[in-house]
């Protein structure tokens, strides 16, 4: 197996795949059913003909640009293993900042039953992570895509939190407003499409070609969906509740007019790369 792994690495490096050594390990582990340390524990093992054929099929697909997460059907997020398909955006490490911030904001309410919402849930990574790490939460997770919701439902089942997440198909918070009265939610999390339409052509080829456009295109300036979300979130949040929105760093100046001072106070958190990534908006206590 050591020779096959070396050949896989060399092949991906030749095809200019940036993380070739790591991705060769991930694909070989997927094919053999081993974890990555197991590849080295069993370095002397010979692959079956079927395993080797499958590995090279996946290597060629990766070389053509198909993301590893779609090849394996898995992606780790917040220390949890998530099912992913081409119907959902692949969870990104920077989005963990949203979950970590939400958990920090909610930490003082661990004994209270709180209602949260995850808008545009996709794979369910945010909703499932919040449910796993904050047992007091009941979460309403929405998505306009039925196919994406099917993936999210399966991820909730896998992680044992199906009973605390209500999955709803529909536009942004519209299906939640049909169920809950104003002032019901303690927190709204949203990682909505925020790439301006005119910049879609500049995306990395593997993103532009394989990931769902519906989960990426945010309209003319990337903020079309957030403009519609903010007023609905304001109505549904309790006074003192929070709206968390992942954004592109270049969009930070555009949020001031969207979050009027009489209604909101907000700050912007930076991701691990030091980029302004997360708008944390609090509904003012005087809000109704």
UniProtKB/TrEMBL annotation:
Ordered alphabetically, the record's keywords are: Methyltransferase, S-adenosyl-L-methionine, Transferase
Residue stretches spanning the membrane: none
Q: Which InterPro entries match?
A: HemK-like, Methyltransf_25, N5-glutamine_MTase, PrmC_N, RF_methyltr_PrmC, SAM-dependent_MTases_sf
Release factor glutamine methyltransferase N-terminal domain sequence ranges: 4-73
Instruction: Supply the EC number(s).
Output: 2.1.1.297
Question: Which Pfam families does the UniProt record give?
Answer: Methyltransf_25, PrmC_N
Q: Which GO terms describe its molecular function?
A: peptide chain release factor N(5)-glutamine methyltransferase activity
Q: Where does S-adenosyl-L-methionine bind?
A: 120-124, 143, 191
**Annotated catalysed reactions:** L-glutaminyl-[peptide chain release factor] + S-adenosyl-L-methionine = N(5)-methyl-L-glutaminyl-[peptide chain release factor] + S-adenosyl-L-homocysteine + H(+)
- Per the UniProt entry, what is one GO biological process? methylation
Instruction: Describe the location of the Methyltransferase domain by residue ranges.
Output: 118-209
Superkingdom, natural source: Bacteria
Query: What is the protein's known function?
Result: Methylates the class 1 translation termination release factors RF1/PrfA and RF2/PrfB on the glutamine residue of the universally conserved GGQ motif.
Which protein family is it in?
Belongs to the protein N5-glutamine methyltransferase family. PrmC subfamily.
Protein name, per record: Release factor glutamine methyltransferase
Source organism (scientific name) = Desulfofundulus thermobenzoicus
* Lineage, broadest ranks: Bacteria, Bacillati, Bacillota, Clostridia, Eubacteriales
């Amino acid at each position: 197996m050591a020779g096959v792994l070396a050949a896989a690495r060399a092949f991906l490096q030749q095809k200019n795949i940036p993380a070739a050594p790591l991705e060769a390990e991930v694909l070989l582990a997927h094919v053999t059913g081993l974890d990555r340390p197991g590849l080295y524990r069993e370095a002397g093992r010979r692959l079956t003909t079927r395993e080797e054929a499958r590995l090279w099929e996946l290597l060629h697909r990766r070389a053509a640009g198909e993301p590893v997460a779609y090849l394996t059907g898995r992606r780790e997020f917040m220390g949890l293993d998530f099912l992913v398909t081409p119907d959902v955006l692949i969870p990104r490490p920077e989005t963990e900042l949203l979950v970590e911030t939400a958990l920090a904001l909610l930490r003082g309410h661990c004994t209270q039953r709180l209602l949260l919402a995850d808008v545009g849930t996709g794979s369910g990574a945010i909703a499932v992570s919040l449910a796993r790490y904050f047992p007091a939460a009941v979460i309403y997770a929405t998505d306009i895509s039925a196919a994406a919701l099917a993936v999210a439902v399966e991820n909730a089942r896998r992680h044992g939190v199906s009973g605390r997440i209500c999955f709803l198909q529909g536009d942004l918070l519209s299906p939640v407003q049909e169920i809950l009265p104003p002032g019901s939610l303690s927190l709204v999390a949203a990682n909505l499409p925020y790439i301006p339409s005119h910049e879609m052509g500049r995306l990395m080829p593997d993103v532009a070609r394989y990931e769902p456009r519906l989960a990426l295109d945010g309209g003319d300036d990337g903020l079309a969906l957030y403009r519609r979300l903010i007023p609905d979130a304001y109505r549904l949040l309790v006074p003192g509740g929070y709206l968390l929105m992942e954004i592109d760093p270049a969009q930070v100046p555009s949020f001031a007019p969207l979050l009027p001072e009489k209604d909101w106070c907000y700050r912007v958190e930076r991701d691990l790369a030091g980029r302004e990534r997360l708008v944390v908006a609090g509904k003012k206590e005087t809000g109704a």
